[in-house]
Amino acid sequence: MRLAMLGGSFNPLHLGHLQLADECVAAGYDTVVLVPAYIAAHKDPVPGDSPEERLAMVRMVAGAYGFETCDCEIRRGGISYTIDTIEYLTEHYKPSGRVGLVIGEDLLAGFHKWRRYRELLSKVDLLLARRGPERTDRQDIRYTRLGNPDFPVSSTDIRERVASGRPYRFLVPPEIESYIRDRGLYSKQPGVAS
Asked: Cytidyltransferase-like domain: which residues (predicted)?
């Protein structure tokens, strides 16, 4: 079984995330695991975001689209380091070959700053997701580009849309739109959504 990991804050999960997971399937991965971070190592935490709520959103959608969810980073707590998660997934799933690790191409330039990055590179096949205009290739790191379209939305944009009352429902799966609306997530007033 070939395994790919798509990690992130998923605050909230949106259609771009699901498209990336689908690109992994198209690239030949049998199982794609979405792994919500407890605290992402390369992002500033968003005030008021709940790891449990983010996990619930991923769980409610992933299985319906044929993907899996792993809560190992949330159970572990603290800052989520990719190397720890890759070691956990390798032990838990016992994939054939190296785990495919999806990262945005904007993260490639700073990849050398990731915890134990050389060891990480020895354990994964990097799957580079397009984000905006194509960036300069790095010759020192091997990777495969995914064929994803440039999806011009981010979780930050969705949170800002919710908070300001702007439409967002066609940027997230219907289950996520309902969850955000029903729980009043990201808005100043509970139950307010577009």
From this structure: 5-161
